[in-house]
Amino acid sequence: MFNKEVWRHFDYWLFGAVVVLSIFGIAMIRSAIAGNIDLATIDRSQSMFVALGFVIILIVAMIDYRYWASLANLFYFFGIGFLIIILLIGNIAFGSTRWIVIAGINIQPSELVKIIMIIVLANFFARNKDRVSGLATIIRSFALTAGMVIWILLQPNLSTSIVIFVIWAAMLWLSGLPVKYIAIFAVIGIVAFGLLFPFLEEYQQQRIFNFIFPNPDASYGDNYNVEQALITIGSGGWFGMGYGHGTQVQLRFLKVRHTDFIFASMAEEFGFVGTVLVISVLVFIILRCFRIARRAADPFGALIAYGFGALLFFQTSVNIGVNLNVIPVTGLTLPFVSYGGSSLISLVLGIGLVESVAAHSKV
How far apart are CA 246 and CA 267, in angstroms? Predict the structure, then answer.
């Protein structure tokens, strides 16, 4: 486990970028909640999660990623069991049952499930790499994914469900499935969504209606939040108003500014130039994941790195898209920057796995 060769191949550039972005996230959260007594301690909470996250990356990186393949089935059923427990005894907040309190800490298991499904699907496709174009393999992989997602939809949590299906589609393509089949599945998914739309929760339907038919006079709700986010982003200009000096943020016109709309907070304080720099760091992290995937020693390691890179790309794109009002509000965080202990821990677990692929592929 403490093989010096492991640390020789450890990707220090990837780790350093994650450290920089996470520390910047703490600073942004601190600015976003300034003066808010109800949120006065969450920056300290995030700091503890970040410190714990760095330790998790190093520990997971030390363990050979191939070991997790043998536990993939156990992880899968553990994830389903945990999600069922949440439905039975979880805390209800904002119309959803997604959280459970363990040792005084609010935990959202669906965040951990993202990483579990990367391991499970990477193991499945690696074992079936010669049969990935077969209909039976595609159906089995879909059933494997849907078997987990159904419990997340029941919370209800549509955004995380979509993330997991995106990971599945990305891994299908990366395993060798022709793009035309992915396109067919995308069309089927859109049609299925249209048919299932009446069965969505009322707040989920309302988010989509607000996006298509926005009310310019809204004084609260998702549409109001997005309008304030656009005003916040625009007020930052090229170089921003300076750290802690954003009027929309500090005067609290911008809501959920430390989670869903932290990108807008960042844009107001650091401007277009600042947001480009932060996005560049995120892109760098994603590209390092893909680079490690290309150099992996086996399909399982490659798919872990590709899968996590796809997760980061999709989640980053969606969060920024929501802030820019080009897609409906979803609730996905900006990786390593937004507040959220469960989200951060799942992300550092993913980074740890990718680092393990980098460190052990040549050992």
Answer: 9
